[in-house]
Write a structure and sequence with these properties.
The structure holds 2 protein chains of 2 kinds. The longest helix of chain A has 36 residues. By secondary structure, chain A is an alpha+beta fold. A 5-stranded mixed β-sheet of chain A has the order 3-2-1-4-5. Chain A has 3 domains: 114 residues, Nonspecific Lipid-transfer Protein, Chain A (2-Layer Sandwich); 48 residues; 37 residues. Chain A is flat and about 95 Å long. In chain A, 63% of the residues lie in helices and 13% in strands. Chain B has 9 helices and 9 strands. Helices cover 45% and strands 23% of the residues of chain B. By secondary structure, chain B is of the alpha/beta class. Chain B is globular and about 45 Å long. In chain B, the strands form 2 sheets. Chain B has a 7-stranded mixed β-sheet, with helices on both faces. At the A-B interface, helix 1 of A face helix 3 and strand 8 of B.
Chain lengths: 212, 257
């Protein structure tokens, strides 16, 4: 039996993914505890182009098992192209993106959204590994510094995005506001419908004229 | 249990030991000599020889096993216990993992490694021959044999022995070197196996001959389709295989009817 992709390659990806996620979870005890409550849940991520299916199994230890083969029944199966998954992964509002995207969801969406919530709100505790390596005093100091830097980085990034959006909309007039754009799309859709109706009337009129 | 009795020692049939033809009853001793020699540095050499990829091959094999909590798994030729360590976690405290190897040196290294890794309780070690497995009929849920079948003297006999002890619906997974599917890759692989591999054996384990045997035994091992036919002859159904790394390695799976 031949598979489309070399299992060793896919296994390398799933192993790396599993190791990274579980390393992060080891630093986020709250997220890990929440995950443990969902033990034995299996999510299937089915990519149609390229054809790869990855299974995510939540263990009772609050870790994730990522594999390319599973015989367990999956509670949720998400199917779509790679770019759809990429859009979802980078979306500000994954729940809305999931609903509005071309991704096909089979089964129960609740575990998928719960997992997404846990991962999004994962609060990494950098202090534990730092203290292990550097000792109590230096580890704590460095962790404080890192927390401050991350927090500043997060705020700065949010502020920059807001200012950039304002500049594009207000100052540069480079893009219309979202509401204006939505109204324009509605107008275009209405116009298309009216043109269709007019076309039908003309057709009917031409048939009547032809009959006489 | 029908095949526990070994044949008498006066069997003068011949078989291969790498590229050398030897008497059938001598092969076991010769193979034992090879693994006695490499046991101490087996893991290091595996990592060096495969650039660490053997871990991915084994990981995929474990995925295909679909082993669940409470099951009994037999890891034949389990050597230094890579698969057994993982199975021990998967079957949990209600399950059982038997690490079996014909070679006492390998089993010793595996036992120490597993104990150091904290794998115990549901793990059992058995020194036995894959051709005459000392277990009751229909008693095991899953059997794996990773990089071991090519060293077995009578592979058909070993496959029948495995089929006997598996429970109906139980599965056998054979992870073994196989035949590359791409002719260019095959040429590169030949150069690597017969020139670089023995050299690495000399430098790392101070044992060129054992690693030359490993390369030769891989070439003498049945290719993917032949092995699948042998599994079917032994009574396995739904047999299939997955080529990995261009067919350098293949994992075969068969179910006991």
């Amino acid at each position: 039996m031949q598979r489309e992709h070399d299992p060793a390659v896919i296994t390398a990806v799933t192993a790396a993914l599993e190791a990274s996620v579980n390393r992060a979870l080891a630093l986020a005890p709250v997220a890990s505890r929440e995950l443990a409550e969902m033990a034995d849940t299996v999510l299937a991520i089915e990519c149609t182009a390229p054809v790869i299916t990855v299974y995510i199994t939540i263990t009772s230890m609050g870790t994730l098992q990522v594999s390319s083969y599973s015989e367990a029944k999956s509670s949720t199966r998400v199917r779509g192209a790679f770019e759809d998954f990429l859009t979802l992964a980078t979306a500000d509002d994954p729940a809305a993106t999931l609903i509005n995207s071309d991704l096909e969801i089979v089964g129960n969406t609740a575990p998928l959204l719960a997992l997404q919530q846990i991962v999004t709100h994962m609060d990494l505790d950098w202090e534990a590994p730092l203290v292990d390596v550097l000792g109590d005093v230096a580890g704590h100091q460095l962790a404080q510094l890192l927390r401050g830097t991350f927090s500043w980085g997060k705020d700065a990034s949010k502020s920059l995005r807001r200012q950039l959006s304002e500049f594009i909309l207000e100052e540069g007039r480079l893009s219309p506001p979202a509401a204006e754009l939505d109204a324009f799309y509605d107008d275009v859709q209405n116009l298309a419908l009216r043109v269709d109706r007019l076309q039908s009337r003309l057709k009917r009129f031409a048939q009547k004229v032809g009959a006489r | 249990m029908t095949d526990h009795n070994r044949p008498s020692g006066d069997d003068q049939d011949t078989t291969h030991f790498g590229f050398t033809t030897v008497k059938t009853n001598e092969k076991e001793k010769l193979v034992r000599g090879v693994f006695d020699s490499v046991a101490g540095r087996y893991d290091l050499m595996n990592d060096l020889m495969s650039a660490g990829i053997h871990r991915l091959w084994k990981r995929f094999t474990i995925e295909l096993s679909a082993v669940r909590s409470g099951q009994t798994v037999l890891d034949i030729a389990g050597g230094t216990g890579d698969l057994s360590a993982r199975f021990s976690k998967l079957v949990g405290t209600d399950g059982k993992v038997i690490l079996a190897d014909i070679n006492a040196s390998m089993l010793q290294v595996g036992r120490d490694k597993l104990l150091d890794a904290g794998a115990f309780g549901n793990l059992h070690m058995v020194q036995c021959d894959a051709q005459y497995l000392p277990f009751p009929d229909n008693s095991v849920d899953c059997i794996t044999i990773a990089f071991g079948l090519r060293n077995v003297t009578d592979k058909a006999l070993a496959l029948r022995s495995m089929e006997r002890i598996l429970k109906p619906g139980g599965r056998l997974l054979i992870l073994e070197f196989s035949k590359p599917t791409n002719p260019l890759l095959e040429k590169i692989y030949d150069t690597y196996s017969f020139r670089i591999l023995p050299m690495m054996g000399r430098l790392v384990a101070n044992d060129e001959e054992s690693y030359r045997y490993l390369a030769e035994s891989i070439r003498k091992h049945p290719d993917q389709d032949t092995l699948m036919a042998m599994m079917e002859d032994a009574g396995f159904v739904d047999c299939q295989y997955h080529n990995m790394t261009g067919g350098i390695v293949a994992v075969h799976r068969g179910i006991k009817a």
